[in-house]
Amino acid sequence: MQLIRLLFLGVISLVLVCFVFHRSLIDYFMQTYHINIKPLETNSLFRPSLETASAVASTLDKWRTQIFEQDSTQLQSPYTESAQGNLLHEKPSESFASRESQTHTEKPSITLPPAIGNDDRQFTQSNNQPLKNIQFIDGKLLINKDTEFLLIGDSLMQGIGIMLVRALRTKGLRAYNIAKQNTGLTFTSFFNWARTTQKALEKNPKISVLVVCLGANDPWDVKGIKFGSEKWNTLYNAKIEEVLSIAREHAVFVVWFQVPTIKNEQLNNKIALLNAMYAKNLESHGLFIKTEILTNEGKFSSYIKNTEGKSVLVRAQDGIHLTTKGSEILSNLLLEKIIVQEHSPHNITNISEQYNQNTIQTKTLESHNPIKEHLQPNSHLDSHANSPVINDTANKESNRESKTDKTSPFTSHPFFSAQQAKTQ
């Protein structure tokens, strides 16, 4: 008899929990399995009780936040790596590729965009609003010592973020990694990155750089709108612009990572369309960082060659996520563009003028024989210095910097010293 009572209480408790948190459950199934579920509130018979249940769930969530202070936008202290849990790139669960074959047997008609070619030197602040504590000149970020970074995105950014937080800390910079797995821009009812970013920037006005990496969870039909259709593309572009406009309102510079090539060809074709949208929107709003460095001549590869010709594992078994080394390589693509200004904020103009003057000098000097310096195997750059695919912009920068006059007073700057190590 006692067992029956216990089972009865368990069933009743489960039903009540599902009733109160029905919206969260629906959002979870929509985001995880990419199926459209009609909201229960559309039924007038259940609407009053379901709205009451949603209000109770909202109140409970507010209490949880106040008690445990686990709001993802709570930026009182920097992100710590130990707080990061359940990383899909470390221990992947069901892969996106397997879900792709289960839930999308019909391949949508998609016209692939031309190759992404974003010149990161062409950035202009379209609304003429000055950036906070930074300048973006000739493909380099000149930033003040007190500049703070906000990292948002999905599980790919979780891995990249760990590497960025560590490296930026060594430069005396602070970064907040609020990336959340299984998120994107498509299902805003499950998680809204625009709203989360807005709250984060309002809570911490010192943030000057927003770093984004997302999209792997986004290429799906939504609310009857087919992925890749003109209407879907218009809606998705609007969501990208929403994030960028929030950054502009707060005078924050945006860095957006290209989603790395996916092993599953069907899913990768969809991701290519999203990457083209990101690159197009970032042409005048920030820096788009291409990630072909992890590929073999543009094709997916789990391994790439380091400077010693040895294969380095950069992708997880699911063909989507990154290994620790892969995350490190991508984080370095941003780190190598950062020049830290050691002095007070009003001196940022001086360093930018110095950088421009040095650039002019390098264009007028005759070519010198490059000095090849050996990279240590454990260096940040060793895994991608000799990658089959090299960013065109990086090649141009390397060729130009190899011509720098060795007697120039600017070669003593840490940035130029680091660049000399990459000349071949």
Automatic annotation (TrEMBL):
Highest rank taxon of the organism: Bacteria
Region spans: Disordered: 90-127, 373-424
Q: Name one GO molecular function term.
A: hydrolase activity, acting on ester bonds
State a single Pfam family of this protein.
Answer: DUF459
Output compositional bias ranges, type Basic and acidic residues.
394-406
* Residue spans of biased composition, Polar residues class: 376-393
Instruction: Write the protein's name.
Output: DUF459 domain-containing protein
Q: Which organism is it from?
A: Helicobacter aurati
